[in-house]
Amino acid sequence: MTLLTDTHTHLFTEEFDEDRDLAIIRARESGVYRLFMPNIDDTSVESLLSTCKTHPACYPMIGLHPTSIDADWEKRLAAVEAWLRGPETFYGIGEVGIDLYWDRTFRSEQMKAFDIQVQWALEFELPLSIHSRSAYPEVLEVLEPYRKEPALSGIFHCFSGSVEEAAPLLEYENFMLGINGTVTYKKSTLPEVLKHIPLERVVLETDSPYLAPVPHRGKRNESAYLVNVAEKLSDIYGTSLDEIAAQTTGNALKVFSKASRTF
Questions:
Q1: Binding-site residues from annotation for a divalent metal cation
Q2: 97: left (phi > 0), else alpha (psi -120 to 50), else beta?
Q3: Sequence-ordered list of residues with C-beta below 8 angstroms from that of 15, at least 6 positions apart, any chain
Q4: Which SS3 state, helix, strand or coil, does residue 242 take?
């Protein structure tokens, strides 16, 4: 089988402290050979980099997650920016975006922080890994001034919306939709939605340790389970698992072009 690429995994977090090396081995044994790891906030960068330096299949991103935006957001964002402008190599700006699902207190601050990080992506010619939860209007509002920027690229992470919600995202031609384990859930509407979305605009992700696919739902997710997502897409698109792997990995490497030059 053609190699799979997990475009969004947090194997550097504490949930994997007991078996991180084994989790990465299991991923490889399942055919998942490339693991892109978005940062969370100013407290997680060292763990992220340590994991990626130990395991060459792991590619770090840098960013401040929207749920980490608080009263000290400017200080925290500055700390993340110092890492970006330092000697370390990063392959994307993420995980960034807007999350208004639980709390709208820092809505404007989230939008400001997201805008700043979009500017980083353009300055450093890196793709964005965009988190959006109950916030598509706000995300699109921030992105609108950059619509015609040819260098703007990335992934709308964890897409789970409707055909109508996908349409304005797909207008950003250099962006992909990230599909993960939610597509395997019994009540998910994604299988029907994806029938209207070209496979050429889809990448695979786990978002591990979260959102484990069926038959692992309810357990800690890990990159090895990406194959379950790929199998579901094989059913949806009516094509072979090899084709799903080849196309989605090709799509991922279009986004992460800096990483593709390391192979």
A1: 8, 10, 95, 131, 157, 207
A2: left
A3: 209, 220
A4: helix
Q: Which residue type, as a one-letter code, is found at position 252?
A: A
Domains in the chain, please, with CATH?
4-260 (3.20.20.140)
How many whole angstroms separate alpha carbon 238 and alpha carbon 163? Answer: 19
DSSP state of 222: -
- pLDDT, the chain, mean: 96
Q: What pLDDT, on a 0 to 100 scale, did the predictor assign at position 263?
A: 58
Residue numbers in the known binding site are: 8, 10, 95, 131, 157, 207
For residue 1, what pLDDT band results from cuts at 50, 70 and 90?
low
Identity of the residue numbered 21: D
Tokens of 3: 């190699």
Q: Which of 1-5, 93-97, 107-111 has the lowest mean pLDDT?
A: 1-5
Report which secondary-structure segment, H or E, holds 116.
helix 107-124
Mean pLDDT of all residues in 28-54: 97
> Hey, how many other C-beta atoms are within 10 angstroms of the C-beta on 70?
12
Q: For the whole model, what pTM was predicted?
A: 0.97
Cα 76 from chain centre: 21
